[in-house]
DNA sequence: ATTTATTTTTGGAATTATTCTAATTATTTC
DNA sequence: GAAATAATTAGAATAATTCCAAAAATAAAT
């Protein structure tokens, strides 16, 4: 899953710097580049890396968690950059932000129409796929003249694993 | 809407302290007392006042806004107390917390099953009443063995007033 | 009614997640 | 390859909320 990329190799070979970056599959790399280009932003090593970190383990990490994971293979990345990257990736529509009550924002690579279930017992966050019909009903509940940009649906309770 | 309550009247009448508190209608006062009693908590002047402030203007104020409104007729109340009161009122099921993305928590006296629409243009937050059927459909989307405690639904977009 | 025990309130300090800032570094454009 | 633009970085700043320990209020027990 990891690949070495040799950069800044000096002529006399006395000082080499290696940076480990995660390998983004060609289709995701292309998706990233496209999305960034569309919003006039550059495809950088850090953005690529943060994106790959989020795609690798398809859960719902906080910025801090993303930072920890990102650092393990790119030790020089800063928390501010992680925040910046998460922001640009969200803006570009490559990932989604997920908010639960007063908890830190989490990030989610699942772009399908879905809700989130937060298990108060295990702390687990589970994606809940929603049929279009449910969304249609939700939209139908709005007064005339309202236009929706986004609907965020968050359940909480007890997940299947946490029952007796 | 306001009433004076005379307290701490000393025997010689030389030093009276008046505290202005909002009048909670008898049914709400009773509802408050009941709810607090059920959770073994005391009905205090501050809790009563914060409750009345929230009921008075049925919008979705933040803690800071509640604090500002509360202070105008109870100047000695502290922000910490407002937070405490809002917490106990929420726990007792008398008000609801409403969260929008990274915004400060807002508080809502509407206890019916409803969602919130946040207009990105005006900043207005509007209650959206939801038919039971929609909630049923949402519950039906959960995997077997999951039990829901609460579903929070937040729309954002443009409200009717903000269209051309 | 006083005393005693328990809750609440209070102001300020502490915390936490996030954003801002200004300098450095990287990338693109000419 | 130099100039222009954008992104990264470390650390400071901010904002909402929680924590803390002392004082005040309320309830319970004598």
Oligomer: homodimer
The helix/strand series of chain A, from N terminus to C terminus, equals EEHHHHEEEEHE
What structural class is derived from the secondary structure elements of chain A? alpha+beta
- Which residues of chain A form runs of ≥5 with pLDDT under 50? 1-19
Average of the residue pLDDT scores of chain A? 86
Q: Which shape of chain A, going by the Cα principal axes? A: globular
Would you count the extended β strands of chain A for me?
A: 7
- Biggest chain pair contact, residues each? A-B, 38 and 38 residues
Please estimate the helix content of chain A: 25-40%
Strand content of chain A: 25-35%
- Rg of Cα set of chain A: 19 Å
Write the layout of secondary structure elements.
2 copies of one chain form a homodimer.
Chain A: E1 2-7, E2 17-22, H1 26-38, H2 45-56, H3 63-73, H4 79-91, E3 96-98, E4 106-108, E5 114-119, E6 125-129, H5 132-140, E7 147-158
Parallel strand pairs in A: 5-7
Antiparallel strand pairs in A: 1-2, 3-4, 5-6
Chain A binds a DNA duplex (30 and 30 nucleotides) through helix 2 and helix 4.
Question: Would you kindly provide a written description of the structure presented here, covering whatever features stand out?
Answer:
The structure is a homodimer of 164-residue chains. Chain A is of the alpha+beta class and 164 residues long. Chain A is 35% helix and 25% strand. Chain A contains five helices and seven strands, in the order ββααααββββαβ. A three-stranded mixed beta sheet of chain A has the order 6-5-7, with no helix packed on it. In chain A, a hairpin with a 7-residue loop joins strand 3 and strand 4. The radius of gyration of chain A is 19 Å and the shape is globular. Strand 7 of chain A pairs antiparallel with strand 7 of chain B, so a sheet runs across the interface. The first copy, chain A, binds a DNA duplex (30 and 30 nucleotides) through helix 2 and helix 4.
């Amino acid at each position: 899953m990891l690949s070495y990329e040799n950069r800044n190799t000096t002529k006399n070979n006395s000082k080499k710097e290696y940076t480990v970056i995660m390998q983004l599959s060609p289709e995701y790399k292309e998706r990233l580049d496209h999305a960034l280009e569309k919003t006039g932003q550059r495809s950088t090593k850090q953005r690529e890396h943060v994106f790959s970190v989020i795609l690798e383990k398809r859960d719902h990490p906080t910025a801090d968690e993303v930072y920890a994971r990102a650092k393990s293979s790119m030790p020089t990345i800063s928390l501010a950059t992680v925040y910046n990257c998460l922001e640009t990736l969200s803006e570009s529509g490559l990932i989604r932000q997920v908010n639960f009550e007063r908890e830190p924002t989490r990030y989610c690579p699942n772009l399908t129409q879905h809700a989130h279930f937060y298990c108060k017992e295990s702390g687990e966050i589970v994606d809940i796929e929603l049929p279009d019909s449910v969304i249609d009903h939700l939209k139908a509940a709005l007064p005339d003249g309202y236009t929706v940009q986004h609907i965020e649906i968050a359940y909480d309770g007890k997940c299947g694993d946490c029952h007796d």
